[in-house]
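# step 3/5: fold
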Amino acid sequence: MSTVAVFSLLIGSLLGGRFRIFILPPVIVVGAAILGAGSTWQGHDSARTVVTILVFAAVLQLGYFCGAALVRARASAYRGKAAPSFDGRSFG
């Protein structure tokens, strides 16, 4: 379960940092299908499968939010700085 949480956090942060459009619904559907098939193949009961999918979806959304917030914070930090000048004068 913790492996699913860690990997979904990483995947969510990568998606949040890369995509501007809302890409979470298709990723959640594909991830739920993969996790459901894997849990069935390993012989887990349906309650554990549902909890695993819910943890995956929730932590994926958290990672997406954190990744998007990090990219936005980094972009605003770079936008605020004035470009250096070769002659020592600053324009702006």
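# step 4/5: annotate
The chain has three helices and no strands.
# step 5/5: archive (pending)
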